[in-house]
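thread from #wetlab-drylab

HS: before we spend reagent money on co-crystallization trials with zinc ion, can we at least see a predicted complex? here's what I'd submit
DV: go for it
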Amino acid sequence: MKFRLCTLLAAFAVLTSSTIAVAQDSAKPLNVLLIDGQNNHKWKETTPLIQATLESGDFAKVTVATAPGKGEDKAGFAPKFSDYDVVVSNYNGEAWSTETEKAFETYVSEGGGFVTVHAADNSFPKWDAYNRMIGLGGWGGRNEKDGPYVRWKEDQKKFTRDMSKGGGGQHGKRVPFMMVVRDASHPITAGLPKSFLQVADELYGKLRGPAENMNVLATAYSNPATGGTGEHEPILMTIEFGKGRVFHTTLGHDVAAMNGLAFQTSLRRGTEWAANGEVTLPAVPAAKMGSDEAATGAPANASDVEGDGQSASSNSNVNFDAAPDLKAEGWKSLFDGKSLDGWNRKNGTAKYRVEDGTIVGTTSEGSPNSFLCSNENYDNFELTFEVNVDEGLNSGVQIRSQSREKGGRVYGPQVEIESAPGEAGYIYSEATGRGWITKEQPIKDAYKNGKFNRYLVRAHGNRIQVWIGDQKISDIQDPESSTNGFLGLQVHGIKAGTGPYEVSWRDIKIRDLN
Ligand code: ZN
């Protein structure tokens, strides 16, 4: 970091103000150049937010350089990059002059810092050095000639480089998504929770590029249920370019996304690291930026963005410490006791009938797993039911589930039902190849055989909790499954020559937590 008079004056201002909350070891704000001027995103709205995020708490002093617009002469656009600790790009547009591009390459390769935000990685598809700086890019005609897709493979617990043919750049619907830290030893991520939610944003997928000297710090699962790739896509990356440091964030599609605490926190930490190679910002506790609800920051009036996370959810009153309260208001019955109205069968051929106010499922030899599924989808909810399963039969209740277009196979999280000793109350990922989502299963006898057992389930954000009676069995974070989908009462397939077995459900009720 270079020392100059203006930063000395700014440092003096910090020391004399009452808003010293940001733990920088030196009181000198980072000297940031923020580039905009063209973008297929609303850069005139987002630049002030990036600026406010970085300047909050006198963390940085931002100078904005606005490049000429589309078709305009670029010759005069020649910022003096070396005057700054770090350059942040909110620019996605036409090429700069050869001289300016060369100057930028020299600046970064000689030790300058660079931060690319969201669509800035769509820019300059033909500029070789730029693509090596950003590691991965999207759109602009990028394809297999530009480099691999880089993805985290959960089954192999590592990143793979996929050179298969195809375009670069993709995103599904804008939804909140869970970021998972893959390198917690890096200064940028060392102070962050292991996983945390970003508010609704574009989750970039299928980025491709040289990916040289690149370290992926965090990924997010791009959910096919919302138009995603089904891959764990890189979201936060660092790249070494010569002696320079690059921080790449794909977050930040619009103002709403940039209000996300995950965006703001990672941008500030990444910008400091790109500038100085270290992060002095305080660690962020999971209580502030966690995986239950996506938090927003308030950079314009917060002296410490990390400390001012507020819930973006409309329901922040969920008490995760207690089981769902059956006396609470808002419970709605999903079964009228007389008919299967509101339900449809998927997948197998097991029989479902209504008898004495219960839904009875009977196995059918040779059938795959069968599911009686709710016609409606549910995302954040509490669910309760009583169930009585024959010994020897495996059953369960699907939540937030989908069925495949081809073949109709039902998949998603399943709350296990099984006579004791067994895995009753644990959560299994049906038909996804993931196996058990609840990894630790110390309790094997919560289910009382030969009678109805009360289940209580809470699904909120990525958190899923299960009780049988008053015993808590599961309490997990599941960033990989969809957070919305149907319910399904499972009758498992059986071995030839066994059965028939029955499983009965009654008093099935749901309570909306949105
Ligand atoms: Zn976007």
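DV: The pocket of zinc ion is lined by residues 41, 118-119, 202, 253 (CB under 6 Å).
HS: ok that's useful, forwarding to the group
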